[in-house]
Amino acid sequence: MTSARARRGEKSKTGGFFTRHRSVFLYVPNLIGYGRLLACALAMARAFTDVNAFTMLYALSFACDAIDGACARAFEQSSTFGAALDMITDRVATTALLTTLACADERFRLSAIALIALDVSSHWMHDRAMTTLGKASHKDVGGTRYGWITRYYYESRLFMGACCVGAEVMYVSLHVLAIDPTERTRTWVWVISGGTATFARLARLAAPLWAVKQWTNVAQLVSACRILAASDAVET
């Protein structure tokens, strides 16, 4: 029995491309992560010159965020590197999007700076807190001192997805509304969608989900700080 189990373990380490193997950098979800970063970079490069490309590329980058997790589970290719890559990619994409919004309309500059600071600090402190608690995943908040909103956010994929989609839709809509009117009216994205009224409506509809996302970030930051402080107190 032991030898059979060992053979299965060895097979999983040296298996095919769509199984768990030794080349972690080439795991399918990690390749998707690299693609997310590339699509995001290309979207930012076209943010002020080609609304069609910007919208499609950023939407592609965001959609891949759901695909990489599904692939990791399906192919048993979850990894510490992959989790870190996913976290970093999320922060980079949101920061880049808020930066382009601030550049497009100076009225959003202070808000964008504050939102970037909250997003980065909240997730960084949360990741540190999870490491301190010995958790293998930053989403494993069960049995911790996190508040109900943070626990529900990480335990419900539907709720998390809705909040993330709401925030991204709001930022993209505001960016499209903020760019040069002469440029945006020439695009099929603008024409097919119905123009100003549609993007303004999308931003308003997404606002409640965006607000919940920021509430979760604040709650997560506060709880993470308390967990880290409690850990320090125990050690003294």
From TrEMBL:
<dbReference type="GO" id="GO:0016020">
    <property type="term" value="C:membrane"/>
</dbReference>
<keyword id="KW-0472">Membrane</keyword>
<keyword id="KW-0444">Lipid biosynthesis</keyword>
<dbReference type="InterPro" id="IPR000462">
    <property type="entry name" value="CDP-OH_P_trans"/>
</dbReference>
<keyword id="KW-0479">Metal-binding</keyword>
<dbReference type="InterPro" id="IPR014387">
    <property type="entry name" value="CDP_diag_ino_3_P_euk"/>
</dbReference>
<keyword id="KW-0808">Transferase</keyword>
<protein>
    <recommendedName>
        <fullName>CDP-diacylglycerol--inositol 3-phosphatidyltransferase</fullName>
        <ecNumber>2.7.8.11</ecNumber>
    </recommendedName>
</protein>
<dbReference type="GO" id="GO:0003881">
    <property type="term" value="F:CDP-diacylglycerol-inositol 3-phosphatidyltransferase activity"/>
</dbReference>
<keyword id="KW-0460">Magnesium</keyword>
<dbReference type="GO" id="GO:0006661">
    <property type="term" value="P:phosphatidylinositol biosynthetic process"/>
</dbReference>
<dbReference type="InterPro" id="IPR048254">
    <property type="entry name" value="CDP_ALCOHOL_P_TRANSF_CS"/>
</dbReference>
<keyword id="KW-1208">Phospholipid metabolism</keyword>
<keyword id="KW-0443">Lipid metabolism</keyword>
<comment type="similarity">
    <text>Belongs to the CDP-alcohol phosphatidyltransferase class-I family.</text>
</comment>
<dbReference type="GO" id="GO:0005794">
    <property type="term" value="C:Golgi apparatus"/>
</dbReference>
<dbReference type="InterPro" id="IPR043130">
    <property type="entry name" value="CDP-OH_PTrfase_TM_dom"/>
</dbReference>
<keyword id="KW-0594">Phospholipid biosynthesis</keyword>
<dbReference type="Pfam" id="PF01066">
    <property type="entry name" value="CDP-OH_P_transf"/>
</dbReference>
<keyword id="KW-1133">Transmembrane helix</keyword>
<dbReference type="GO" id="GO:0046872">
    <property type="term" value="F:metal ion binding"/>
</dbReference>
<keyword id="KW-0812">Transmembrane</keyword>
